[in-house]
Design brief:
By secondary structure, the chain is mainly alpha-helical. It has one domain (2-83): Up-down Bundle (de novo design (two linked rop proteins)), CATH 1.20.1440. It has four helices and no strands. α1 runs antiparallel to α4 (66-83). The longest helix has 18 residues, at 66-83.
């Protein structure tokens, strides 16, 4: 179940990475979060917590378009559900 949510988050973040209308630093943060989520060296909850840290920081960026912020929040919601399973 956690892996399914992680895969859903990866799809959301991948759409951010591929959108050239989103500032580069936000796309880079989404890419870093994907790498963390794809890593199998930690439990799903730890991977979710690490990705949350990155996404929380970038969600504060004032240059982020509103539609991108909404996608980030959606991803954060899924990740918080995984982290709460710890």
């Amino acid at each position: 179940m956690s892996e399914d949510k992680i895969q859903h988050v990866i799809v959301i973040l991948q759409s951010i990475v591929e959108d050239r209308g989103i500032p580069r630093n936000i796309r880079r943060a989404a890419s870093e979060a994907i790498k963390l989520l794809e890593s199998k060296s930690y439990t799903p909850a730890v991977r979710a917590a690490n990705a949350l840290s990155i996404l929380d920081e970038c969600s504060q960026d004032t240059n982020m378009p509103l539609f991108a912020r909404t996608k980030i929040w959606k991803a954060v919601t899924y990740l918080e559900q995984i982290r709460d399973l710890m």
